[in-house]
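Schema walk-through. Below, the input block comes first and the output block second. Nothing else is stored per chain. Lengths vary across the set, and this one has 211 residues.
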Amino acid sequence: MSTQRLAAAAMTAAGMMALAGAAEAQGAAGRDQQVRPTGNLPPADQPLIRRIPEPTVAVEGGLGVLGFLGGAAGVGPSWNVRVTGSMSPRVAVEANYTGSVNERALVGKSLVMTSLDAGLRYNILRADEAVVQPFVVGGVGYVGWAGRGGDAFALSVPLTAGVERLVTRNVKLGARFNFRPAFFDDLSLGGATSPTGGDTWALLAHGGGAF
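--- output ---
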């Protein structure tokens, strides 16, 4: 066999191998296209849900004690119901109902507080950065007191610091300290020479469900 024929045979063999490789690649691509599910669904050998979403809404209840800074009444039991919606790992919004019953020692009567407010919460640490998650909350809302010397309507600006953590994926526990300045308030009893303020503090333990 001459050198020219040998070279021609080698080139022919190389060309046939290249064509065979291209045909095999095209066939594999066709088979992959046929078995791949349509739309955005992954194939059956991959999980349908890659990551379980973290809770974004929490409904909680709390119990604790509440007192008055101006001496309007003694320390008494307090309760709280709250809905929290997470906007990001750092920021959330809250809607709160807080109530309390405090005895007025001078008249032997109870002062019943009702407060409704909304607040913006900032998580100082993300939930995955520490054993408990510290946070602060600032808000604005309504507060009123029923009873002897009460005030039916006042403005409140609650300020809160607290910690919490998930116990299970859907159960969380925590505690918070609340300072609630009041404006346009007067809890004075008859004959008082100066108005008595309704500024309060509260210490609450809370728990609830996150979804």
